[in-house]
Task: inverse folding
């Protein structure tokens, strides 16, 4: 069953008189429990697509459905509520509030639920345990390495137990080792916890971790067989 | 309140700035409360005065005396129950740096007309018996550390020479607007030594009914209209008000300047609050992606402004209320009964709320309306 259904989506941005058409009639599905890598040149619309799926932005026309709910038709208040339950989002950097500890950062989404303090504590500890940072609860972002920061952000993205986790170049600022850690963590989230994961990345090695690779170019997708991707990478 | 951690973290982000902002709000409201209390105290003083007391002065002005012989004729006016008189002395004590009111009174009748001045029975008797005795306000005696029975010498300014009095009693006002740092002595003593031949500064009459006041005042002025010293008679309230108005003009000027200062401080505080919210565009966008609604973010930013202004207000207004009371402040006798009133506190609170709205609404609306996608793009 498709968790994300994108149907005939048009998206254009207006900059003064100029109009930029990012998508003109995009349709695609993302399966429940899949692990998808979105690739493509800069400016091809990868971030825009993630934003549309997360309801952070609205399509010019067409529909975006996630888990049967029509995201593209919700009011801002409905979207906020929906997002807090169904989507975890991780950016390339600056995900964390610098004034809050790792624990407090991860707790943020739970503040929007009816959970008691005790239940929240428990869940935050579990989430930080999953990302292997249960010994860094009281650390502030500036006391963490880049890789650790991203793992805290991932803990925050999964703490409210959403089905869908969206990551926009989560390893873009990380060194090779930290990238590996983050990527294997995502693999585990997909395998063990059955999270549907969509990751935007420029890094072919990162994309290899995904079960499906989509190449976005000039507003359309080209599905890439994993072997073909590897071969292309090897040749390049 | 589960969002408290977030609020506290945001307030603690720039501890010094938050502290300075709270301090400036506190200072502004302390200043506001102080200045407004100058006005309310003067107003209370001008409203003080029994409607059952009339005051007669020389029609040419307060500095011109009236013959003491008027006393009997005033007593005879229908509706007048009691008559007393007093005379401004204007003596200086010591180096004269600490001014206080001192005047000569017809002692027995004066105390009779002013039951608001409470004097222990034995002291009252001792004062009445001693022609060079003096009655001292409770604050004044504490101020100079004088004792009952001690001699005090004033240097005359209007009536030259050294004047020595023996303190015979202490009066305590039962109404706070009566000056508690004045000194009174016997009119006979002044009259005798100056040989002025019976002159009074002003007369005070107790009348039978307040509503007869205007009519009696007119009867009195008519009585002396064709004499060499015509009178001007009005209620005690009007008499006090004429003094208060004099100070009131100074007070008003002071207040205008002061309120401008208050306003300036508040503007600075508001700007600081807006600034700190502006620096957080990225964080607000992150909170939105997590699922914080526009309304919730509006509330949180507003609450932050509220915490700063309300705590500033509590400190500033609380300090004004407690400090002036604890130190028994009265501006060297010019503002007896100086105490921050409840309406002043209420008004200060209202200013704090307005400040919260003014400084909070812009960043709160901005936070609520912030388009997430654009905000995220700008930083990266
Ligand atoms: N808010 C916006 N206003 C105007 N143009 C925009 C806006 N957001 C995106 N665009 C334009 O839409 C196109 C797609 O942008 P998007 O950020 O989705 O690309 P991307 O694939 O994520 O690129 P990158 O790999 O550099 O992150 C770009 O041409 C960009 O300039
Ligand atoms: Mg992008």
Result:
């Amino acid at each position: 069953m498709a968790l994300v259904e994108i149907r005939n989506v048009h998206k254009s941005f207006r900059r003064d008189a100029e109009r930029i058409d990012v998508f003109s009639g995009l349709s695609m599905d993302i399966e429940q429990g899949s692990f998808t890598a979105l690739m493509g040149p800069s400016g091809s619309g990868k971030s825009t697509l993630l934003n549309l799926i997360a309801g952070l932005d609205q399509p010019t026309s067409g529909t975006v459905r996630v888990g049967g709910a029509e995201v593209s038709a919700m009011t801002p208040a409905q979207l906020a509520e929906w997002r807090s339950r169904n989507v975890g989002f991780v950016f390339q950097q600056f995900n964390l509030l610098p004034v809050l500890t790792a624990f407090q950062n991860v707790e943020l989404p739970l503040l929007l639920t009816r959970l008691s303090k005790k239940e929240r504590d428990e869940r935050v500890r579990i989430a930080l345990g999953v990302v292997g940072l249960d010994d860094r609860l009281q650390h502030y972002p500036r006391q963490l390495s880049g890789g650790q920061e991203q793992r805290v952000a991932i803990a925050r993205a999964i703490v409210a137990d959403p089905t869908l986790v969206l990551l926009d170049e989560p390893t873009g600022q990380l060194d090779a080792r930290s990238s590996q850690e983050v990527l294997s963590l995502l693999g585990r989230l997909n395998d063990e916890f059955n999270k549907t994961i969509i990751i935007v990345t420029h890094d072919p090695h990162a994309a290899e971790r995904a079960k499906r690779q989509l190449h976005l170019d000039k507003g359309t997708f080209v599905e890439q067989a994993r072997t073909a991707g590897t071969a292309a990478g090897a040749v390049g | 309140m589960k969002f408290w951690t977030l609020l506290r973290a945001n307030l603690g982000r720039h501890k010094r700035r938050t502290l300075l902002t709270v301090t400036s709000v506190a200072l502004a409201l302390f200043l506001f409360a102080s200045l407004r209390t100058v006005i309310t105290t003067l107003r209370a003083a001008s409203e003080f005065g029994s409607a059952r007391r009339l005051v007669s002065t020389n029609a040419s002005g307060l500095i011109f005396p009236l013959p003491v012989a008027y006393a009997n004729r005033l007593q005879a006016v229908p509706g007048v129950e009691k008559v007393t008189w007093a005379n401004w002395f204007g003596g200086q004590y010591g180096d004269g740096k600490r001014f206080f009111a001192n005047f000569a009174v017809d002692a027995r009748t004066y105390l009779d007309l002013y039951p608001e001045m409470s004097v222990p029975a034995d002291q009252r008797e001792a004062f009445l018996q001693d022609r060079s005795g003096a009655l001292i306000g409770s604050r004044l005696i504490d101020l100079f550390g004088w004792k009952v029975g001690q001699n005090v010498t004033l240097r005359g300014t209007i009536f030259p020479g050294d004047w020595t009095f023996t303190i015979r009693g202490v009066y305590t006002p039962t109404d706070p607007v009566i000056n508690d740092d004045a000194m009174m002595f016997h009119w006979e003593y002044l009259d005798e030594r100056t040989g002025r031949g019976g002159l009074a500064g002003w007369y005070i009459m107790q009348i039978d009914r307040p509503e007869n006041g205007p009519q009696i005042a007119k009867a009195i002025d008519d009585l002396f209209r064709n004499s060499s010293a015509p009178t001007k008679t009005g209620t005690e309230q009007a008499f006090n008000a004429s003094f208060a108005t004099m100070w009131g003009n100074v007070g008003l000027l002071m207040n205008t300047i002061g309120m401008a200062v208050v306003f300036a401080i508040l503007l600075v505080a508001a700007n600081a609050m807006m600034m700190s919210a502006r620096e957080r565009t990225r964080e607000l966008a992150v909170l939105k992606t997590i699922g914080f609604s526009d309304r919730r973010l509006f509330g949180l930013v507003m609450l932050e402004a509220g915490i700063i202004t309300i705590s500033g207000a509590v400190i500033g207004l609380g300090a004004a209320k407690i400090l002036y009371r604890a130190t028994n402040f009265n501006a060297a006798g010019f503002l007896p009964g100086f105490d921050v009133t409840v309406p002043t506190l209420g008004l200060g609170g209202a200013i704090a709320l307005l400040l919260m709205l003014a400084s909070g609404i812009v960043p709160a609306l901005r936070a609520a309306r912030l388009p997430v996608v654009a905000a995220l793009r700008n930083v990266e």
User: Anything to note?
Assistant: The two ends of chain B are 33 Å apart (CA to CA). The mean pLDDT of chain B is 88. Chain B touches chain A at residues 2-3, 5-6, 9-10, 12-13, 282-283, 286-296, 372-373, 376, 379-380 (CB under 8 Å). DSSP finds 13 helices and 13 strands in chain B.
